[in-house]
Please model this.
Amino acid sequence: MPTTTEKNNATAQRTRPTAQQAKEPLADRPIREQLIYIQQKLAAPKDNENAEKHFRYRTLDGIIAAVKPLLLDCSCTLTFSEDVLSIEQGPYIISTATLTNVRGESVETKAFAREDTRLPGMCSAQISGACISYARKYAACGLFAIDNTRLVEPIELDSFSPSAVEELKRAEEHGEAPLPDSPERPVNAALKPVLSAGQGDWQREVERVKAWEGSEEAFVDDLRRRWSISDNDILVLLSRRDAPFAG
Model:
């Protein structure tokens, strides 16, 4: 009976490209290998900043600009298409991002975004366009495995009535817990300050995690309630604790 090491070696041998495959141009490889190449090479950082609300975000235009050279490497195209789903809560835009190579092979990912008619100062065409752009961005993020899933765009703040935004701002100012994040109220994340490794408040949170007497889950819940923080930074923060968590 093969040992675990032998099984792992056999698996690695099957998945490792042969010398002939390694010499094949990217344009001649199967669509899945081309997608792996793009996912590993693509860098789409949050290079836009909302100074007033203290958060950074990426845009669809930024993702497309970053992926175009990689599409050229693979001789692939990226296309988007939309459908509309009407339910009781309102219309949803369903965007499909499709990666297609010269052999006609393709792989696709879908994403949803709700069209909100309460955006002030925007005509219906602009509202639909903003919703389509937002759904396409999430579809592209899913297709290309773009990391850091907390993606916040300015349109989210404007998607809610002024009274709702003011209500959340007052809660934040008085130290009250914000409303739970949900697809209907992603504005909560935008109202929280961002916590990243190296910021002034980072060391304070390091001391908090070291002295925390509750469970790890309770600490993470408390952290997310107060900060907009990436999953990677949460793991880094948890690694600073010397002793096991309670429970």
Notes: The chain has a mean pLDDT of 75. The longest strand covers residues 77-87. The CA atoms of residues 31 and 105 lie 6 Å apart.
